[in-house]
Amino acid sequence: MPAFSQDAFPQPRAAWQLGLGSAGMGTGDYIGFKAHVEYAPLFGRYLGTGTRLAFVGGSRESYNWLKNPTPTSNGITVPFVMSYQALNAEQEVYIYPFGNNKRVLFALGGGGYLGYSNRYGAPETRGDFTTGTPTVVLDQEHGVHVGYMFSLNLDVAVDENRNWLVGGKASFQNDTFGNSLATLQLKLGRRF
Predict the structure, then answer these.
(1) Hey, what long-range contacts does 130-138 have (CB within 8 A, 24 or more apart)?
(2) C-alpha angle 33/23/156, rounded to 5°?
(3) Burial of 128 (0-12, 13-18, 19+ CB in 10 A)
(4) CB 35 within 8 A of CB 188
(5) Which residues lie closer than 8 Å to 102 by C-beta, 6 or more apart?
(6) Which residue, among 167, 166, 173, has the nearest Cα to 151 in the 3D structure?
(7) Which of 110, 128, 152, 157 is the most buried (most CB within 10 A)?
(8) Closest CA to 8 of 96, 106, 101, 104
(9) Which three-class secondary structure state does DSSP give residue 161?
(10) Cα-Cα end-to-end distance for the chain
(11) Using one digit for the tens of pLDDT, what is the confidence trace for 38-58?
(12) Beta strands at 140-157 and 180-191: parallel, antiparallel or unpaired
C-alpha cells in the first residue's frame, strides 16, 4: 500500500510560465525574438491547456534592386529594413501522452491565436499601365490577424515537490496575412 500511494496521481494543478527565445520569420528571412507569459492548468492526467500573452519582434537590413528605367539607368539598389512585430493572445490544448504526473513532462500542443501585427517587407517597383509611370511601393501589412499553431513541449521538475519547472518549447504558427513563425523557446515555470 505505501508503494501504491507514492505513485498516486497528485491533484491537478496549474502553472505560470515565462518563455523566451527566437522566432524564424517567414521562410528563414531573418530571426526575431519571442516572449510569452502563460497560465497552464491541468485537467486530469493527460490533458491541459495554455493561455498566453505573447510578443514577437524582429528586423533585418537588406537590399533590393528597384527597376526604374531612365535614359541613363535600368534601376537602383536600395537598402531597406524588413521587420515584424506582433502582440498575440494564444490558446493551446496540451496532450500529455505519458501523463502529467511525472518529473519529465512531454506535451503535444495545438491551438490558435488572435492578435495585432505590423510587417514591412521589400520595396518594389510597380508600373501604372495608363500612364506608363513606375512607382515605388513599400510592402506593408498591419492589422488584426488570427492563426493556428502547433507545438512540442518538454518540461522537467527540478525540485523535490515538483513545483519549479524548466523546459523548452518548439512551435510553428501561421496567420491570416500568410506570416509564418518557427520558434524555439526556453521556459521557466512555477506550479501552484
Answers:
(1) 134/67, 134/68, 134/69, 136/66, 136/68
(2) 90
(3) exposed
(4) no
(5) none
(6) 173
(7) 157
(8) 101
(9) coil
(10) 27
(11) 999 999 899 999 999 999 999
(12) unpaired
CA angle 88, 121, 171 (to 5 degrees): 40
CB within 8 Å of 99: residues ≥ 6 apart: 9, 45, 46
User: Per residue in 58-112, pLDDT tens?
Assistant: 988 877 666 665 556 666 676 777 889 999 999 999 999 999 888 999 999 999 9
Q: C-alpha grid cell for residue 141?
A: 501589412
Measured between alpha carbons, how far is 137 from 127 in angstroms, rounded to an integer?
10
Whether the CB-CB separation of 108 and 92 falls below 8 Å is answered with no
Predicted TM-score (pTM) of this structure? 0.81
Evaluated on CA atoms 102, 103, 106, 112, the torsion sign reads positive
CA distance 80 to 58: 14
Q: Torsions phi, psi of 157, nearest 5? A: -75, 130
